[in-house]
C-alpha cells in the first residue's frame, strides 16, 4: 500500500438516500438492467493519464498537484504510481483502466530504452491485474507530447518520424496484447495542420491511411482479437485535425477500405468541439456500424476548449446511453473517464470523489435511457413520423427513377401538408425519465 489513498475504504452502494460522499447513490454494480448487471452495461474504466500523470498545470501556470511519484523520471516512480493507480481501481471497483505509453513509464534516452521500460511496467502490473481483477480496456501511444511529434506522427513530413511512430505503435500494441487489452486506440493528437502554407493535405492523408492499414495488418498478425479504434477530434492542439468527427473518420475509413476493420472511440468533449452533441456522434456511429467505445467527460460551455471535466449532467448522459443501448450496448468497448480534476482540487480524496460522482451520473443516465427504451414512447413517436415510408408505394419510389417519383404527384393528386415534428412534446417526454 502507498500513503496516497490511505484510510479510504472501498466504495459501496448505499442508495439514493445516502448522505455519505464516499458511497455510490445510483451505481449498484449488480443491479439488473435490461437483463444484465449495470456493471456489464457501463464497463467503467479509469484513465491512467489524467488520474496519475497529469500534474495540474494549464497554459498560464505550472503544476499544482504534489504526488509522491513526481517527477516521473524513473521506473521507481513509475512503479509507485502503478501501486497508487491499482489502489484507486480497487477502491472504486472499476473493472477496467486505459493508458498511454508515456503515462506509465518515463521516456528513455533511446527508443529501445523507452520500449523496454514499457514492457517492464507491463510485467509489474500483470500480477496487480490478477489480484484485483482489473482489466485493460485499451492501450494507446502518446504521439503528441514530445517535440518530435510537433508536426504529427503518421502525417509528419519527415519519414524518420513516420518510422518512429510505427515502432511506437508496434510496441504499444504488443503491450496491449500482453495485458489482454480489449481494444487498441489511435489518438491522433497532432495529425493535422497549423497552416496550409507548409502543408500538403493530400500527401498527409495518404500517409495516415497507409499507416492505419499497417496498424490493422500488424494487430491481426499478432492475433489481437480486440477492436481497433480511432478517437475523432476536430482541433486542439492542431488548428485542424484529419479525424475531425465521426462523419470525417467514416469517409476516411471508406477511402482506405478499413470501414469493417476500425471503429470509433467517441469523447463527449471532442463532439462539442466539433460543433455536435455527444448523442449526435453516437447516433451517427451507430447508424454507420462503427460505434466502439466512449470517453465520458464534459466541457465547460463557457470555454472554447476541451476541459475534460467529470460528467455531472444526467440528462445529457441519458441521451448518450440511449444511443449506446440502441446499438446493442458495448461489446469490447466501455465507459472510460477521460476526465481530470480541476487544478485547485489538490487532495487524493478529490480524485476518489470525482470518480464516484461520475460513476453515479453515468449509472443514473443509463438507467433513465433503459426506461426510455423499454417504455417505447420515443421509439413509437419516431416510427410514426416515418411510417409513410413503409408503404409499398414509398418503397417502390426509392428503387425507381426520378420520372416515376414525379409521376406519382399528378397520378395521385398529391398535395402534402407539413406535419408537426413535436419536438417540445418529445423533450418533455425525455424529462419524465431523467427527472
From TrEMBL:
Q: Looking at the keywords, is Isomerase present?
A: yes
Q: Where in the cell is it found?
A: Cytoplasm
Predominant localisation class: cytoplasm
The record's remark on the cofactor is: Binds 2 magnesium ions per subunit.
EC number annotated for this UniProt entry: 5.3.1.5
Q: Which cofactor does it need?
A: Mg(2+)
Q: Does Nucleotide-binding show up as a keyword for this record?
A: no
List the InterPro entries: Xyl_isomerase-like_sf, Xylose_isom_bac, Xylose_isomerase
Per the record, the GO terms for biological process are:
D-xylose metabolic process
A molecular function GO annotation = magnesium ion binding
Q: Which UniProt keywords apply?
A: Carbohydrate metabolism, Cytoplasm, Isomerase, Magnesium, Metal-binding, Xylose metabolism
Family according to the record: Belongs to the xylose isomerase family.
Matching entries from HAMAP family are given as: Xylose_isom_A (MF_00455)
From the Swiss-Prot or TrEMBL record, give the protein name.
Xylose isomerase
Amino acid at each position: 500500500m502507498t500513503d496516497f489513498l490511505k484510510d479510504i475504504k472501498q466504495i459501496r452502494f448505499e442508495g439514493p438516500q445516502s448522505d455519505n460522499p464516499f458511497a455510490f447513490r445510483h451505481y449498484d454494480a449488480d443491479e439488473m438492467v435490461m437483463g444484465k448487471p449495470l456493471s456489464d452495461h457501463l464497463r467503467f474504466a479509469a484513465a491512467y493519464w489524467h488520474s496519475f500523470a497529469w500534474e495540474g498545470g494549464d497554459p498560464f501556470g505550472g503544476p499544482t498537484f504534489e504526488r509522491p511519484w513526481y517527477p516521473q523520471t524513473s521506473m521507481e516512480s513509475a512503479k509507485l504510481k502503478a501501486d497508487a493507480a491499482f489502489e484507486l481501481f480497487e477502491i472504486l471497483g472499476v473493472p477496467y483502466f486505459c493508458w498511454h505509453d508515456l503515462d506509465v513509464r518515463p521516456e528513455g534516452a533511446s527508443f529501445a530504452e523507452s520500449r523496454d521500460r514499457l514492457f517492464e511496467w507491463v510485467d509489474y502490473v500483470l500480477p496487480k491485474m490478477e489480484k484485483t481483477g482489473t482489466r485493460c480496456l485499451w492501450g494507446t501511444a502518446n504521439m503528441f507530447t514530445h517535440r518530435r511529434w510537433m508536426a504529427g506522427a503518421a502525417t509528419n513530413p519527415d519519414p524518420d518520424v513516420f518510422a518512429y511512430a510505427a515502432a511506437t505503435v508496434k510496441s504499444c500494441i504488443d503491450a496491449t496484447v500482453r495485458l489482454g487489452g480489449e481494444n487498441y486506440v489511435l489518438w491522433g493528437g497532432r495529425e493535422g495542420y497549423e497552416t496550409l502554407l507548409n502543408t500538403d493535405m493530400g500527401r498527409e492523408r495518404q500517409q495516415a491511411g497507409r499507416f492505419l492499414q499497417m496498424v490493422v495488418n500488424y494487430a491481426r498478425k499478432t492475433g489481437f482479437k480486440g477492436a481497433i479504434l480511432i478517437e475523432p477530434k476536430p482541433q486542439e492542439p492542431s488548428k485542424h485535425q484529419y479525424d475531425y468527427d465521426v462523419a470525417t473518420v467514416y469517409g476516411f475509413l471508406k477511402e482506405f477500405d478499413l470501414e469493417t476493420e476500425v471503429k470509433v472511440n467517441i469523447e463527449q468533449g471532442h463532439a462539442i468541439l466539433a460543433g455536435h452533441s455527444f448523442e449526435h456522434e453516437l447516433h451517427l456511429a451507430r447508424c454507420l456500424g462503427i460505434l466502439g467505445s466512449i470517453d465520458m467527460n464534459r466541457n465547460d460551455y463557457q470555454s472554447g476548449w476541451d476541459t475534460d471535466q467529470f460528467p455531472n449532467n444526467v440528462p445529457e448522459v441519458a441521451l448518450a446511453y440511449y444511443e449506446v443501448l440502441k446499438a446493442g450496448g458495448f461489446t469490447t468497448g466501455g465507459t472510460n473517464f477521460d476526465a481530470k480534476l480541476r487544478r485547485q482540487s489538490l487532495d487524493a480524496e478529490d480524485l476518489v470523489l470525482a470518480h464516484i460522482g461520475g460513476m453515479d451520473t453515468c449509472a443514473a443516465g443509463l438507467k433513465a435511457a433503459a426506461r426510455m427504451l423499454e417504455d417505447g414512447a420515443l421509439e413509437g413517436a419516431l416510427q410514426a413520423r416515418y411510417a409513410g415510408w413503409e408503404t409499398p408505394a414509398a418503397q417502390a419510389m426509392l428503387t425507381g427513377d426520378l420520372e416515376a417519383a414525379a409521376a406519382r404527384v399528378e397520378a395521385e393528386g398529391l398535395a402534402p401538408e407539413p406535419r408537426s415534428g413535436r419536438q417540445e412534446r418529445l423533450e418533455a417526454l425525455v424529462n419524465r425519465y431523467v427527472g
